[in-house]
Structures are given as structure tokens and as C-alpha cells.
Specification:
This protein is an all-alpha fold. The protein is built from 6 helices and no strands.
């Protein structure tokens, strides 16, 4: 006679199925968690990787200038572009700092959380309006 699964196992299966159903909606959270783990590994294995990541901080600003020059936008579209570039610049800056000093050093863990929240909110807004 097979044993009945434990309540813990049933809860874990329930949470796993729930996360699987909403996996696309939670993409920024998954990316943020993966980035947190990768920067922790980079910090532990090669602190100098921060020097490699640092120039990437300028990429979103260059993207904004390039896109705005090729396809000028106004009002709402420009606001979304600026917001996206600012969020990406802060996220890349966080990744460079976290790789150099560790993701839990100083206020970096709070910055990670404060970058995750607007990214997740913007993702949900953009996905609903399409």
C-alpha cells in the first residue's frame, strides 16, 4: 500500500505548479535571482570581473541615444525609453558592483530589491497592454 504524500510535499508540488503556470509573468524575478547568484559566484571566483562589467553600464545610455536618433519618440514612448534605459543602467551598475564587492555588501541587497520591484511591475504592465 503506497504511503500518502506528506503535507510538505503537497505544498511544494502546489507552489511548483503555481510558479510553472505564471513563469512568463515572473520572468524579471527569475532573471533577478539568476543575476544575484551569478554575481555572487563572480565575486567569489573572480572579483576582477567587475572591471569587465563596468563598461557595460554605458550600453543602455548609448542604446537610448541611438534609438532616439533613428526613431524619434515623444511623450509616453520617450518616457518608457528613458525609464527602461535608467533601470537597465542601474541594473548593470549593480551587477558590476555586486561582482566586485559581493551582492550582500552594504546597500547592494536593497538596491537589488528596489530594482526588482519596478522591473516586475513594468513587465506586468507592458504584458497586459499588448
Amino acid at each position: 500500500m503506497p504511503e500518502r504524500p506528506s503535507l510538505t510535499r503537497e505544498f511544494a508540488v502546489f507552489v511548483g505548479r503555481l510558479l510553472w503556470c505564471f513563469r512568463v509573468s515572473l520572468a524579471p524575478t527569475g532573471i533577478a535571482l539568476a543575476t544575484f547568484v551569478v554575481t555572487a559566484l563572480l565575486h567569489a571566483l573572480a572579483w576582477w570581473s567587475a572591471l569587465v562589467l563596468a563598461p557595460a553600464v554605458a550600453a543602455p545610455i548609448a542604446w537610448l541615444a541611438f534609438v532616439q536618433r533613428r526613431h524619434p519618440a515623444h511623450r509616453t514612448t520617450l518616457a518608457w525609453r528613458i525609464g527602461t534605459a535608467a533601470l537597465a543602467t542601474l541594473a548593470l551598475g549593480w551587477a558590476a558592483l555586486a561582482a566586485g564587492f559581493g551582492p550582500l555588501a552594504g546597500p547592494l541587497e536593497l538596491l537589488w530589491l528596489f530594482l526588482l520591484l519596478p522591473a516586475q511591475a513594468a513587465w506586468l504592465i507592458v504584458r497586459r497592454t499588448r
